[in-house]
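Sequence in, structure out. First:
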Amino acid sequence: MRSSNPVFSRRGFSRDNGHAGFNAAPQAGGPAVGTNPYATNPYAPQQGTQYGAGSQAPARTDVMTIDDVVTRTGMTLGTVVLTAVLSWVLLPVDEANLGKSYGIAIGAALVALVLSLIQSFKRKPTPALILAYAAFEGVFLGVISSAVSTYIAPGVVMQAVLGTMAVFAGVLFAYKMRWIRVTRRFYGFVMAAAMGFVFLMVANMLFSVFGGGDGLGFRSGALGIIFGIVGIILGACFLALDFKQVEDGVAYGAPREESWLAAFGLTLTLVWIYLEMLRLLSILQGND
């Protein structure tokens, strides 16, 4: 199983001929015997440990832990938040600076997209690349959030932030309680739904650009509300996939450097949820 999120091509923790990817992931309760992608590593858990029976192997000191994931995720999200705040303050969206700020935001979004795609196809995580993505993503989010708060729905940004945090906490709790079980069927359903969602959003954008107005109407009115809710639900599903990726990486003894992949994936997913939450709340507040 390959882990995923809105980029659709982010790599997981298991290995297949040297390439990172989700391959033969364990089911809930621990890795299955014979499927550990790090079994060829002399320091990976061998038979006789908690994953099997047999000889003991020396303890590794460079394996990924939950603390590593939390630290790297904090650094990545912290970069997003810092640059978002700075862009909000330094790139005002008043009438005199609106065009300039929007231009910088669009440029930052494109750079962030390119950096995220480069990292998604790299065999190993590059911390500088991931943090650069976070910085440019923060610039985009800061300007867009400022514009929405100024011209569309004052106060909605804090609501979107709190909503994103609530979704994260809710999915984490449900995952830890095993109310959500990430299986191949779950993965396939989420991927199919996500690709359909993105296809419709791209079609709506193209119709909006070339036909004017709101395109197919997927981002306003009743349809906008429905698609906003669907987008948030998909984001929650991506979070469950990310949590599964982290859980398997720790259980398999993934290298510590791959905690950056977890941070990268979680950041992508949280940005997705925040944008969908911001859009949904803006529509709701605009309909009041």
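Second:
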Amino acid sequence: MAEQKRDQGKGRGVRAEEARAWEALVATARRTAAEGLVVGTSGNVSVRVGDTVLVTPSGVPYDRLTPDDVTGVGLDGRQVLGTLVPTSELPLHLAIHRTTDAGAVVHTHAVHATAVSTLVTELPLIHYMAGALGGPVRVAPYATYGTEELAENMLRALDGRSGCLLQNHGTVTHGVTLDQAYDRTAQLEWMCRLWLTASSVPGLAPSLLSPEQLAQAQERLRGYGQRR
């Protein structure tokens, strides 16, 4: 691929690194749909390349996105790449990219996680993988989608965490990479499904982990995986 591909719309040309990141972003967005974490054009994905945040555009089915549809904004929200309107949840994505070292953000309307967001203010400690998200997963109070209020509520719920639930709305996770952000989304949805399943047995209540047990698991999780 040429070092720089000219964009026919707003702003400057698309750099090679941004073109590769866009390809990975589209693949991740399609994965959220294929694995049932979103329906239609709900949910959105972003990835940061330098001071540019690539985001899924508003209302465009992921299977229709092409390399020519690169959509990017600066950290100030000004569009610098593409002609498609960025996702309506741009304030949510930019809030994370401005205040954390996140390289990617995934927002979904996953059904089990959204159901849990309507029932509790924090996901009960049903599994030690909550430690992989930084601790007990909080639920951000409801606010209208696409608003600064929602972004502010989300940031409070994310304090010290890499994932949270949005009340009556869905999930938000972030990570260093798109794969990490996506894996955290899938893990959060799985934990919510687990808690709902265990809680549905008549006459029984699921056992929950203590804060001490979670802390022990978090310590072990820090050394999990292959060392390179």
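Remark: Residues 57 and 85 are 6 Å apart (CA to CA).
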